[in-house]
Structure formats: C-alpha cells, structure tokens
Amino acid sequence: MQILIILSIFFGGILVGLAIAYILRVFNTKSAERLAEELYLKTEEARRSNVETVVENVKSTFRELTMDALSRSSEEFLKLAKTKLETEREVSCREFDSKKGLIDQQLGKMQQELDKVGRLMKDLETDRVKKFGELSSSLRQINDQTASLRETTDSLRQALSSTKVRGQWGERMAEDVLHLAGFIENINYSKQKTLEAGTRPDFTFFMPRELKLNMDVKFPLDNYLRHLDAEAERDRAKFRDDFLRDVKNKIREVTTRDYINPEENTVDYVLLFIPNDQIYAFIHEQDRTVLDEALRNKVILCSPITLFAVLAVIRQAVDNFSLEQTSNEILSLFGSFKKQWHLFISKFDSLGTKIDAVQNEYDALTTTRRRKLEKPLNKIEDLRSEKAIPIIYDETPEDDEQ
C-alpha cells in the first residue's frame, strides 16, 4: 500500500512539473527554452530525489517485509522441525528399545566369536613357533646334508679324474645292477674272462643254448667332466662336442674287439654300459644320432636303469629256456611212465585173475571139501559118544591151554 502511495506522488510530481513547464512556455516564449531547461533540471533533480526516496522506501519496506516473512517462516519451520524431531526421537527410542535386546544378543555372539578367534590365534602362534623351530631344524639338516653331499661330490669328481678309478667305478655300478637283478657270478655271468681271440670283455652273460652276450663298462668321461666344470659357454660347447665324439669313437672301438664273434657263440649285439643315467640322458638330448649309430654297429647303450631291463629280459629268456628243457624232460619221463603203467596194469590184471582162481579154490576148500570131511568126523564123534569112549590127549591140559 505504501508503494502505491509513493508511486502516485512520484507520477503526480511529474505531471505538475510538466504543467508548470507548459505554462511558463506559454507566458514567456523567449525564455521558454531556458525556463524549460531549468524546470527540467529542477524537475529531474526532484525526480531523482523522489526516485531515491522511493527506492529507499521500497528497500526498507521490502527489507521489513522480508524480515517479517523470514521471521514467521523461521518460527514455523522451527516449530515444525521441533515437532518432527520429537516424533522421530520417540520413534527412535522405541526402535532402540526394541532392538537393544537383539544388539546385546549379537554383541554376546560377537564376543564369543572374538574369544574363539583369540584362542585360535594363540594356538596358531604356538603352532607357528613349533613349526618354525621344526623348519629351522630341517633347514639346518638340509644344509648339513648339502655340505656333506658337496664334499662327497667333490671327492667323487677328484676320484673320477683317474681313468683306472673310473673303470673300477663303472664295474662296481654294473655289479650293483647285476646283484639287484638277481644275477650270480659264474652262474649267470662271468667277469674279466679272456676269450679265444685274446680280448677280455668286462662281463659275459650266459644265454640259452650256450649263447653269450658281452658287455664293456669302460666309458669315456673326461670331456664330460670338463664340460661340467667349464664356466664359459664356448668352452662348455667345445667339451660337449668332444665328449660326443669320444662316445662315437668308443662305439667303433667296441666293434673291433671281437665281442661279437660267432666262433665264440656270441649273440649279434654287444652292450656298452654308461654308469650314470644323467649322462645317458645328456647323450640322448644333445645328439640323437649317437644312439642310431650305435644300433647300426649292433652296440646297445645301457644306463643303470636300461641295463636292469635288459638283464630282466635275459633272466626271463634263461628261465623260459630252462622251463622248456624241463618240460621236454618231463614229457620224455611221462612217456616212460606211461609204458611202465601199462605193464603194471597188465600184471595187476593177471594177478587179479590168479587171485580170483585162488579164491575159488579157497571157497571150494572151505565149503564142499570141509563139509565132506566133517561128515565122517561127526559120525565118528557120535559113535564115540554112544560108546562113552574117553578122549585121549597127547599133551597135558596146561600145554593145551597154552
């Protein structure tokens, strides 16, 4: 309402100013422009003043209205918020009271679980300490064993640096495999026996039908050991190639020693023993042509494992041959037994016939002849009884009783 009054006064002042300007223009046309300008300036100044006043009044009024509205809104909002808060608080209290029991129950379960976890952690810690101690002890034992193995390996490597020692080691490894396979010296094989050609294989195995299989255990290991000891890759490759060349040379050397000799009644193959499975695998991995060349030369390369398999085949062949010979002997004896059996049956049947004849004669003696003899005796006894003739005994009663 106050804004409308202010606006009315403002526009009324403008109209009054215009009217005064018009009157002044009418009465004084000469100074109309000057008067109009002065009047305009005054009017403009008055208008500005009125506008500022109106603006200030409007601001003041708007501020008052805003503050009043805000105050009322704040009071209503606070009342509403307070009411809502009280309601929510009451609901929350009721829900809290209703859930307090469940919360206490859950807390109790959680406490029990925490106690279990605590006990489990203690047990785990105790077990961890125990296991850690066992692990430490095991690691110490492994370290000791590793050190001992390293010393043994170094000693073995130093020992194998001698050609003679390597030969003895190969023979010992071969003998261990032979004993494991159940072979007995001078029964299943012979050792270091000179052949008629003058050569002396390390081992000679006795095969069926008086066949023989020779084996050489002297294997070249020098360049292989150098290959293991070499640090530079170029040196390792060089010693590897030298070792493979040594193996091929050894294969050709074995074929020139009359180990395969039909006059000695040998089989068409010879065994070359490699005293280590790792070396056998190394040859197979690095150059497979070595095995092919060995087979072409009728040389069978054997590691300890493959030698055991070969010996098992030899043992089975010998057993099968022995069983075959035994079977032939059994069949021959069975033929002789059959002949004697038929003779026995013939004699037995003849004896049965004779026994039947004797039985018939015996039956005749115990029946007809006995009755014929007893009839006169009975009549004589009747006569003796009638005549009251006493019986005369040649022996005393004591002798008769005896």
Question: What descriptive keywords fit this protein?
Answer:
402 residues, mainly alpha, five-stranded mixed β-sheet, 9 helices, 5 strands, 5% strand, disordered C terminus
Quick structural summary:
With 402 residues, the chain is mainly alpha-helical. Helix content is 77%, strand content 5%.
The helix tally amounts to 9
Helical amount:
over 70%
Biggest sheet strand order reads 1-2-3-4-5
Unreliable stretches covering 5 or more consecutive residues: 397-402
Which structural class do the helices and strands define?
A: mainly alpha
Shape: elongated
* Number of strand elements: 5
What is the H-and-E element order?
Answer: HHHEEEHHEHHEHH
Description:
The protein is mainly alpha-helical and 402 residues long. The chain has a domain at 164-327. The protein is 77% helix and 5% strand. It is built from 9 helices and 5 strands; from the N terminus they run αααβββααβααβαα. Strands 1-2-3-4-5 form a 5-stranded mixed beta sheet. α1 packs across α2.
